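Quick one before lunch.
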Amino acid sequence: MPKTVQELLDALTVEEKASLTSGADFWTTKAIERLGISSVMLTDGPHGLRKQAGAADHLGINDSVPATCFPPAVALGSTFDAELAERMGQAIGTEAAIEDVAVVLGPGINIKRSPLCGRNFEYVSEDPIVAGHIGAALVRGIESVGVGTSLKHFAANNQETDRMRVSADIDPRPLHEIYLRAFEHIVTETQPWTVMCSYNRINGVYASQDPWLLTDTLRTAWGFEGLVVSDWGAVSDRVAALAAGLDLEMPYSGGAADAAVVAAVADGSLSSEALDLAVTRIVQLVAKAAQRPAVAGPLDVDAHHALAREVAGRSIVLLKNDGLLPLAPDTSVAVIGEFARSPRFQGGGSSHINPTRVDSVLDALVAVCGDRARFAPGFAFDGSDGETLRSEAVELAAQQDVVVLCVGLPDADESEGFDRTHINLPVGQLELIDAVRKANPNVVVVLSNGSVVALPFRDHIPAIAETWLLGQAGGSATVDVLTGAVNPSGRLTETIPLRLEDTASYGNFPGAVGHVRYGEGIHVGYRWYDNRGFDVAYPFGHGLSYTEFSYGRASVNTDANGDLIVTVPLTNTGDRDGREVVQVYTALDNSVVERAPRELKAFASVAVAAGQSREATITVRRKDLAYWDVRADAFVVEGGEYRLEVGASSRDIRSTTTIAVTGDELHLPLTMESSFGEVLAHPVAGPVVQASLETLAGAGGGLLTDEAMSALLGSFPIGRLINFPGVDIEAGQIEALIKMANSTA
Ligand code: BGC
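Model of the beta-D-glucopyranose complex:
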């Protein structure tokens, strides 16, 4: 048997190599037994294991082996806690290892560009720093037990509408600063085993066939060493895909593409090196999987359920609380809403997990309150019997002290595969909220939804808890928070707008005739609302606790790497232990480029005991200060006085400090198209030109004293000064200046 990759490559026929570059079936790679290459299984993901034992599909239709359904990314992200995400990842990895799965297809880290995206529940945030940190933690956790991950969907897969064809048309700055940033963070920090390329096109080119994306960016610029697998069915031309940097097409696509690869190598249109590279990465993946340390089953169902409950409790975002929560002991509770009995705890599609058990809010409340908790469904998911169910619920509400009203989006309203067209709760549920609060004002609204919904009732309801889709232990976790057994600490990773019309991509989502234009540029999520000065229902980063935190004065230093070390004293002024999510935003006034008023750069979830103080230390990485410079085609840190805003949400800044940051040196060569202003700013050419201008001014030229004239000249391309009436300058002089400047700088 061959021992090294090279020996394997020498021993494989071209036909065998071509066949290795697609799956054997839905979930496994091909084996070549004569050479000892075994087959490995890749399966969903991301918030639990979906291993299909029987009929396979990628839409979550057929049942899979029971596995713990942990909170989907929408919830996990709200913890803002990388350490917790890593623990959850480790548990998912362990379940995968027990089931002999080599790669879990996740995490999904695409940016929530619009609340309408049907798959937002599978994604972490509207902000790339949050998505990057939480995603990296999941990768570290899963891979810590020797199971691989697949970072997906690379890239710019921000909608479901026409997802297999649409071109995401994005300018370079938003592409790099918003849509690629989290991928870059995770790839450079964790080197995941695999990256999954997305279905869509980016600026006209299919992700699966894009050499700029898969090779220049992912491998050359970021140093990715693992394997690129296609999303299921994303490849339409495997030869082009292999040439671009894809390694494995999934699932099995019939033999035609294998034959096309063999023919392309034969006629030279695909280099044998490109095919060998893909095969190398596939056999390396198989080898890595073979090294996984043994994990003894069976799955510890109880321990993993307990972890799912812990994460779920930490994911809940208490949006509003006029003092109704936590529920007072001995309160009688009207539990209203079908969601209380039939929880919606995960989203539809390929991530659909067959849970080991499911907790409901109703059962969990009854367990705590006994017969002080009484239930009325209030509505049916299919909208039937509206009036009868509503009046029963209103009657019950009037009899109890407090109402826990569980509303949300039914399965049919959001899923992988389609986008929403509005952000409203079903009309029947809105009517129910109204009717119930009139019967009993002490209402806690508990929301179950995979992405934000409009909350037109929020001023009339004393307490609102956003519980997202919480995974299989969500029911008991919700009751942990309602009763105060868990002090809420979740924060919004996506802004809750007042209206869909206020959202950044409104009018540009989901596009038409094969294209979606990312017209809002860098102003995604809170960046948009802040830039426009729009009011929102609840801002990015918001979330309440049952205790209060006061912030001292933030201070900042630079470490040897140029990273900014921010410290802030934090005091828990209440009488309950709690967690504060400290957020650090930066701003740079008078920047050379357009910027959002503030951008999140770092965060930390900090536990502080009741009455205690602690200093939170948070690192803002220098590289995260960078903007994408379209002239240099690179990230550049601009020099200047940065404002660091430290706070409890994007609109609750508690302490501000500043620091002078030295910028990266930008060497942009001068050309005939360089403006007069750019020449003046150039370290070598500038002083030369300045000196001759001063001579002119001394001779009565007046150029420097005339402000209007210098403003006008400032944007004048120097090449066009030649032969300009009244300017006595020759091409040779400018060429000499440019040459001198470019050779010295
Ligand atoms: C989804 C992926 C998933 C794959 C396999 C695709 O439809 O986009 O996220 O991993 O199917 O189920």
